[in-house]
Amino acid sequence: MNKLIARIKQIKVTPKFVLKVFFYLFLHFLYHLCEYGNQWAGNLKGGMWKIGDSGIPYATLPGLFTALCTLILIAWVVFYGKMGYYTSITILILRFIRLTIKILNHHLSFLPGFFLGITAFVAVVLIYQSNRQTIKTQQKYRKQVEDFTSSIINAFTNCIDGKDSYTNGHSYRVAQYTVMIGKKLGLDQETLDKYYNIGLLHDIGKISIPDAILTKPGKLTTEEFDIIKSHAQRGYEILKDVKIQDDIAAGAHYHHERFDGKGYPDGLAGKDIPQVARIIAVADAFDAMSSTRSYRKKLPLDFIAQEIERYCGTQFDPDAAKALLELYHEGAFDNLKEST
After folding, report:
1. Of 249, 248, 205, 250, which is closest to residue 228 (Cα–Cα)?
2. Closest CA to 35 of 78, 74, 92
3. Do residues 182 and 211 lie in contact, with contact meaning Cβ atoms separated by under 8 Å?
4. Which of 23, 179, 200, 297 counts the highest number of beta carbons within 10 A?
């Protein structure tokens, strides 16, 4: 019961959901209309149902309505899976009970309907089992693709982080912080999974940056800093043709854009910056400040929170920055305090 209640709470009332419920109820209406038509046709004696210059013999109408009922039962299975299957089976069982009672009371005219019901039952079961097997195969294939994609992304991530011992694990932490911020913003799980992968690859452009510049302990020259900055564009160039996921290049390309439009490489501002990049920008800055780098030691967590708040609305997207600060005040990063 608790699982059922939890699943009901997870239901989002979207236009698609409303349309699906409406169609389900509409099939119910059509089915009962056809059942009524079947009973009506069964009481007719001989004659023809005139349609223009031609007509349909009354004797054929019960079979026509029964066929329509069967099509509706199959439609439930095709469009609603398990729920549609159980709906169809329940209706057929009730029909069998009703017809069996009629036949036992010597109304043998209901025998054809009984055997047609058996045919409908077999059809519903076979179609459901076939659809179920197809779905299982698709899920297995999708899982294999997801596992392969994940392993490739992780391999790239290890290459990125392996270039600098000081930033080892940076990509994984940024991806994790991105998900934590995304949850605070109310994003659904599918989007969070997508953003996690994008977060893992946000620094992929650094593969093309010389180690001497990337790990330099002192201050960078203007030329060296320009080379460092080029990793955003280079990351985009590496990922732009990758089709495994939509917007996979967005994090790499735009995570150094600023909310006030003073970032790079394109100087985008506000909501023109993709949401995932705005979130990664906060997560990236947070991890950079909370980690020891070749040019400085990690900063105190309280100071980092002050910096995030200070640049909220200028460097950082206000919503993403506030979400991270909420996490900070809730103690989500207390483990970093202890290791300072």
Report:
1. 205
2. 92
3. no
4. 200
Strand 54-57 to 48-51 pairing: antiparallel
Q: Which residues of 13-39 are buried (b: 16+ CB within 10 A; e: fewer)?
A: eeeeeeeeeeebeebeeebeebbebbe
Task: Please tell me the pTM assigned to this model.
Answer: 0.67
Distance CA 157, CA 204 (A): 7
Instruction: State the CB neighbour count (10 A cutoff) for residue 209.
Output: 20
As a whole number of angstroms, the distance between CA 73 and CA 70 comes to 5
Contact 73, 112 (CB under 8 A): no
Closest CA to 117 of 100, 130, 132: 100
φ, ψ dihedrals at 205, nearest 5°: -65, -20
Predicted local distance difference test score (pLDDT) of residue 271: 95
Q: Which residues of the chain have pLDDT under 50?
A: 340
Place of tokens 């608790």: 2
Question: 230-237, long-range: CB within 8 Å, 24+ apart, which pairs?
Answer: 230/205, 230/265, 231/203, 231/205, 231/206, 232/205, 232/256, 232/264, 232/265, 233/205, 233/265, 234/205, 234/207, 234/208, 234/209, 235/201, 235/202, 235/203, 235/204, 235/205, 235/206, 236/205, 237/205
The encoded tokens of residue 129 equal: 């089992």
- Measure the CA–CA gap between 193 and 29, rounded to whole angstroms: 40
What span, in angstroms and rounded, lies between the C-alpha atoms of 192 and 190? Answer: 5
Peptide bond into 15 cis (omega under 30): no
